[in-house]
Amino acid sequence: MKVLVTGATGFLGKRVCLDLISRGDTVRAIGRNKEIGKELEVMGCEFIAADLRDKDTMIKACEGMDGVVHSGALSSPWGAYQDFHSINVMGTANIIAGCEQHGVKRFVHISTPSVYFNFKDRFNVKETDPVADPAPSLYTKTKLMAEKLTHAAYERGLSTITLRPRGLFGPGDTTLIPRLINAHEKGRLPIIGDGSTTLDITYIDNVSLAVLNSLDAPASCSGQKYNITNGEPIKLWETVDWILTQVGRKFEPKKIPFSLIYVITGLSEFFSKHFLNNREPTLTRYTAGLLAKSQTLDISKARTQLGYNPKVSMRDGLNRTLVWWKEQQRD
């Protein structure tokens, strides 16, 4: 299979490229980080240094491809709407246009389960459950718009599958576990809420497995959306305590009510927008909500229809990630 991967220099995109190459596929990779692009070329990928907003390049990149994995996006809790829209919405439109023009057989769109997040506890959320309205962040808003573009393309005849993977982590991750450890080092890791937060996260290899399964899935899966997690919900703050213990730290946090943090972060966002040239606050309402509110996902649909079965357990994934993190500290 000939596969184009967007966002190939990102955490998930790079892993997908490696797994595709390992199974013998031909991979064309698009990304903006030229250094990681060189690594991809060594792995055996054709690398194109390009931006999703470059419509002509995106359309041409789809030529001759059997499948496209669209993992490129602007993912951030803060930023300007025009940036989120131009990358997450128009960038997706550009890739879809290339798929339709060149007859791509399968388009796998990487979305986000943050579309469900409404600042309330939600458990065992299914793909058919309501999305949040209004969206909790500009990122979420524009990713949902990209989902709608993807579904419209399906209705026009493009075979699409949308994945909503939750909380990616693993070796190479610079977002989830390393940020938690760094926040603790700086004394910026209080327990927000009552400490009972339960949520899903997903080891990177398992998400890549879901992507490959989606490329190979039967036509009956076209037009569908799938939640992807490890299938092992965790108690957030107990897990944070365990992680910090494994790296030789002691977790003695303060508890702060979510209602208080919500007011404080709201004021911080207001001042940032109106007086600080939209500089990202230390903590946003959206990020605070993710730490305070429970959200678990039902992945039975992915198990049944995609044949998705997480191959790396939560404990093994966490251990592998911490081994990698310790190696990075030594280096």
Could you characterize what this model shows?
The strands form five sheets. Strands 3-2-1-4-5-7-12 form a seven-stranded parallel beta sheet, with helices on both faces. A two-stranded parallel sheet has the order 6-15. Strands 8-11 form a two-stranded parallel ribbon. The model has no long low-confidence stretch (mean pLDDT 96). The longest helix is centred in the first third of the chain and has 22 residues, at 81-102. It contains twelve helices and 15 strands. The chain is of the alpha/beta class and 331 residues long.
Lay out the secondary structure:
Blueprint: E1 2-6, H1 11-22, E2 26-31, H2 34-43, E3 46-49, H3 55-61, E4 67-70, H4 81-102, E5 106-110, E6 122-125, H5 138-155, E7 160-165, E8 168-169, H6 177-185, E9 191-192, E10 198-199, E11 202-203, H7 204-216, E12 224-228, E13 234-235, H8 236-246, E14 255-256, H9 258-275, H10 285-292, E15 295-297, H11 300-306, H12 314-330
Parallel strand pairs: 1-2, 1-4, 2-3, 4-5, 5-7, 6-15, 7-12, 8-11, 9-14
Antiparallel strand pairs: 10-13
Helix pairs in contact: 1-7, 3-4, 4-5, 9-10
What attributes characterize this protein structure?
globular, single chain, 331 residues, 7-stranded parallel β-sheet, two-stranded parallel ribbon, alpha/beta, Rossmann fold
Radius of gyration: 20 Å
**Spatial ordering of strands, largest sheet:** 3-2-1-4-5-7-12
CATH class identity of the domain at 2-166 and 201-229 and 297-311 = Alpha Beta
How far the N terminus sits from the C terminus, by CA atoms, comes to 38 Å
Mean pLDDT: 96
Q: So, CATH architecture of the domain at 2-166 and 201-229 and 297-311?
A: 3-Layer(aba) Sandwich
Give a short account of the largest sheet. 7 strands, parallel
* Total strand segments: 15
Question: What is the string of SSEs from the N terminus onward?
Answer: EHEHEHEHEEHEEHEEEHEEHEHHEHH
Output the number of helix runs.
12
Shape: globular
Structural category is: alpha/beta
Helix content: 40-55%
Low-confidence stretches: none
Percentage of residues in DSSP E strands: 15-25%
**CATH-level-4 superfamily name of the domain at 2-166 and 201-229 and 297-311:** NAD(P)-binding Rossmann-like Domain
CATH topology of the domain at 2-166 and 201-229 and 297-311, anyone?
Rossmann fold
